[in-house]
Amino acid sequence: MTRLTKRQFLRLVGSAAGVAATYHTMNTLGLLGPESAQAATPDLPDGSGYGRRVVILGAGISGMTAAYELSKAGYHCTILEATGRAGGRNLTARAGDVIHEVDSRQWVDFDHEDHLYANLGPARIPYHHRIILGYCKEFGVELEMFTNDNRGAFFHNAERFDGQPVVGRRVMTDQRGYIAELLAKAINRNALDDDLTADDKERLLPMLVEFGGLDADYLYAGSNRGGYQGESVHAGLAPGDVNDPLDFSELLRSEFWEYKLHFSQFLNQNPTLFQPVGGMDAIAKAFETRVRRIIRYNSPVEEIRKTADGARVVHRNQRSGVSEALDADFVICTIPAPVLKDIPNDFSPETQAAIESVAFVPAVKIGFQARRRFWEDDHAIYGGISWTDQDITQIWYPANGYHREKGVVMGAYIWDDFPGQGERWANMSLPERLRTAIAEGEHLHPGYADEIESGVSRAWLKAPYQLGAWPESYQPPAEILAPDGAVYFAGDQITALPGWQEGAALAAHTVVNSIHARVMAG
Ligand code: PHE
Fold first, then answer.
1. Which ligand 1 atom minimizes the distance to the CA of 469?
2. How many helices (H) and strands (E) does the chain have?
3. Does this model's pTM top 0.85?
4. For ligand 1, atom 6, which residue shows the shortest CA distance?
5. Does the N-terminal peptide bond of residue 42 adopt cis geometry, omega within 30 degrees of 0?
6. Cα 508 to Cα 65: distance, rounded to the nearest angstrom
7. 355 ligand 1 Cβ < 6 A
8. Residue with CA closest to ligand 1 atom 5
9. What pLDDT digit, counting tens, does each position of 27-72 carry?
10. For 233, left (φ over 0), alpha (ψ -120 to 50), or beta?
11. Residue 283: CA atoms inside 13 Å, Cβ hemisphere, count?
């Protein structure tokens, strides 16, 4: 598997690099329809699909979206699902569930309470993901706010600030303050005279005072935006003492600024974000309710073949355990590239090479049930994320169940795979994953180990029939944007939204519209 460089990773997390190019490619291939930037929600004429057989590979969000839309138009759809459950990477763990990996099984030992669950796959939906939110609305999936950015949560670097976690409001405030001060100095020393008119300078200086919380001399000497000294954070009865600013050199060396400090600036991480009440799988369940009759569970695909007038999919029959073939006019293949590349097929060498080139991120998530909501009780942290430079990368606090007795925190969400920690953690034993995550969490929350009652981990590299979390690149190879014969590729892997359900649904819409256009063209 190719490894992501740090620079590639930062691009993956944040920017839209490659999106325009991908969009251009899709458009050129006619996959986006004539005018729209996004595939229009299919609105196929009733009965337009009568007599056409479509076999859909995978009952994840993409496959079920395609099945739902095509069935409405009269297409005869069958979904082949390799596992015993629908949802794909949309996976919520709760009490009593069994989580399978290729070489292990875990029993989820959480309490039976509505708010005690871990979204081990997707966990947040930004407000502009209109397709997936549209289905939530159509299906009546109740939503609540999800919090990314919490100024009361921590930033931690084991080698900076004496290894102590620093509260977000101070890091954010001081970074702005120092930058504003430096820029004001440059302006006042006339270093930017080539770039600014006298009028600009006059306006920029007061702007910087506001932006950074500078004093009358354009210096940053700390700000009450970062809170007050002592336990209470705010001023209270008497005006308190503002925190001293953090050391600027330490701030620079902490590398919080790499992406963590501006995380919520990223388009797909902007507020407002949502989560379904009771777990992300409410979305998968809502789709499944509507397409259940056409899903064949426990039916892994063994071969994908071309026929004279369509395609044939050989798969294991769930009941007999014997291989069986299904013929179809069209196949929609949502099987993730790391799995698909090893399924015998008749694809062109170009298609096969393209599939082999799509590398997935080996992300890992670990959910812990805590006996006490110590983040709320001890730190006034309600939802949001603490960041650390340790392997666990981040701790997420639940955006639900506030002030209840217990809660489930995401005790690790590993996604930056340098130097190879995704794979390293995937290869740890299950108890070792939990132990290591607890030991690292201890540096953010002393006493953490005593608060944790049980945990569950998901290394997506080892997820059966997934073998990865999401494509590393925003730019899918052109060969899988187009069908190979009667086989259309779908899933987030054919979009510039890798790792988002929106991408999965967008891909489904795109393919549904393409099939419809082909059928109409006769
Ligand atoms: N959507 C997922 C998340 O927000 C995975 C992802 C992360 C996708 C970063 C792209 C970039 O955590």
1. 5
2. 15, 24
3. yes
4. 499
5. no
6. 6
7. no
8. 499
9. 444 454 433 445 688 999 999 999 999 999 999 999 999 999 999 9
10. left
11. 33
